[in-house]
Amino acid sequence: MKALDYNTGQKPVWCPGCGNFAIWNSIKKALAEAGVEPHRLALVSGIGCSGKMINHVRAYGFHGLHGRTMPVATGIRLANPDMKVLVNGGDGDGYGMGVGHFVHSMRRNVDLTYIVHNNKVYGLTTGQASPTNDVGSPSKSTPFGVVDEPLNPIAIAIDAGATYVARGFSGDSEQLAELILGGLNHNGFALIDVFQPCVTFGGKYQYEYYQERVVKIENHDVTDADAALKLSKTKDKLPIGLFYKAEGHPSYNEMHPEIEKAQVRKRDVTALLEELV
Amino acid sequence: MSSVYVWKIGGPAGFGIMTTGPMFAKVLKASGYHVHGYPEYPSLIRGGYNCYQIAFGDTEVTAPYKKIDMYVALSDECFNREMFEEGTYVIGDFANLKNAGDIKAKKIDVPLMDIVKEMDGPDIMRNSVALGAAAALLGLDFALLEKNLMAAYKEKVAKINVDAAKKGYESVKERYSVVCKPSPDKCAPALYVTGNEATSIGAVAGGLTFFSTYPMTPASSILHYLAKCTREHGLVVKHTEDEISGINMAVGASFAGARAMTGTAGGGFSLMNEGLGLAAITEVPIVLAVSQRPGPATGMATWTEQGDLKYIINASQGEFIRAVYSPGSVEECYKFTFDALNLADKYHIPVFVLLDKFLSESHFMAEKMPETGEVNRGYIFEGNEEEPMAYFNRFTEKKDGVGVRVIPGTKGGLYIASSNEHTDEGFVSDKADVRKSQVERRFRKLKPLTDDMPHPELFGKKDAPLTFVCFGSVKMMLLEAMKHTDKFNFIHFPAVIPLNWDKVKKMLEGRNLCVMENNYTAQLRGIIAENTGIIIEKTFLKYDGRPFFNEEIVSFAEEAAK
Q1: More exposed terminus of chain A, fewer Cβ within 10 Å: N or C?
Q2: CATH entry 2.40.10.240 includes domain A19-275
Q3: Cβ separation of B210 and A260 shorter than 8 Å?
Q4: Tell me, what's the pLDDT at B1?
């Protein structure tokens, strides 16, 4: 498979310069390298600009509802173990509305790769602050500055039970593709939080903002959860790369031996009925 | 109304009423009686007042009564809650019951606690002593009680409970004679089953492979029942973080090829609304078992109502078709759940099985479950090996508005299930012609779907002076009342939408109609008026959280028919 094979021919509707283009390219590259055939790939999207990825990657697609990607993806993974599941969502989708599903999916260690397009803003609804926006930032819904503390998805993921936790930057699509590939090859829940500037409504959070602050993770033991947690709380710099990777944890499907027997067919319920006589 | 005898046990939650009641019903059933069990309980783990009523007789019994013939009082609270007539026999440990002094009933004094203490057993064992006493008064064969106690408890505990029951049995037999022994008809061995059990078993029979939800009374026991079936019958059952996840997970599983269902009560269904619309526009088959209880919001968590009919029919934004079954018996719960799974797969729509607390949690006798058809998954794309990467026109009409379904993993079947309006391949589109043709195609399913739904049926004598019109579980209450008066017949709706309303109209015309519903606003009446133009003026409505009791129906019918 080649990256180009995953194109669908649909013309992207993202703004010129949008960070989503880099994520798109990194996804296709990672899929090609992992050798995932399109008919074995279930792509799940939420609502928002990130959700439009569904139209541009050749795969079985499920374009769900705002904040609800995780349960849909879990259902697909449990019902059809032959499918590779890749989820795209935004920071509003996954860390705002869907934060409950996000946390519970990680504690279940569902075997999927979850890419969160994190631009700290609601782009498609024209510029309200998202849960990752910093205190003080003005936005359409917070004209006098955000007062809520930002949510730290990396720390939450490590703590909640995700077994592969990374952060990428759409200004570095090479590294991003590697991180996605690592997620696709990982057996368990892989979160890839991506700094992805919204060039139209992102305010100060543009490429320059991130380029000045991002720093690649080096000399870090990815199996050390405490060290990863500490790293996730770095204030002055924004580390990108793999924070945490735990091996040997059973994924969600492995915890459900009944899946192998789950077949749609008429069942004989005589024994069940006899118990009620 | 003499041939039906009513036995009841009451006491605080935590006293084992809900295991003792159904167990004693099985003893009566084994003795040859027809039985019906009706539980009432508050939303509490300990304390409050739980009771379980068994109405039994020599012909089929299907609904609860106001009268009580024999009552087992386990605490003083019973005397604040129940009305006793002079003829009622009350079994109690009267040395320990302070409030019982002035009751009119005939007291059957059994030293429950003394017997328990003497045997060095736990307090809860008083239930078994009381059952022994009741069995003696009713002239039941002790061996049948013994057998059912042995089946209900683990071996060690079972033995001591049998001994306790024996003491109760003998204590009464020495001092009192048999008070009632209507000759049992020796009915055939039958199931003693709740609506939720029948619904669950219908789902297992129908090839269900995925069930996900969050527990909510009175639907929780569907989750519990199916969860027990997972390993042996090969189905995935998930208790999710909330109902939103429950329905979305089921939709995801169904998209991926599972036969999926969720189950909840009105409050949980409120959270499922957006997922319902998602299933509709993505045309992912899904079955929803919704058991009604009084609302809004938390309402009365453990009581019954039929207040969600209009909500179920209208829930979610936008316009789309759905099917709503409203089973009136355990047999219909079983069959309609089986059929609902097929119907969802055939038309790629959401299908409801609408229950209520009375039907979900009451016990009914059923000789056997009805025959069903075969599992039918509808049109499924088999794949195209030549072009594995190709997109497929999933949303192009094959027949009757229905497209061809693809199970992900199939070569050449790529498509997108999108919550947005979409093209035939599922790509997002808001072009006017795409929208128009997709809406029209989806609604073309309506006609054949209507033909697949069960039609309302008339029960009773054709020329009765009054015709009740009802849906769901009220059927059971009316069948019972029909044994006591010939003043009415009734039309039951086993499904509410979609229906052939021309046919319904013909059926309703020329009758003295009265809607009978467990709600305040007569919701079925509204639906009938909207679809047929017939406005049924007479109403018989109940909305206090209780089902219609037999005596209430009989007196209403006799008054109305005057």
Answers
A1: C
A2: no
A3: no
A4: 38
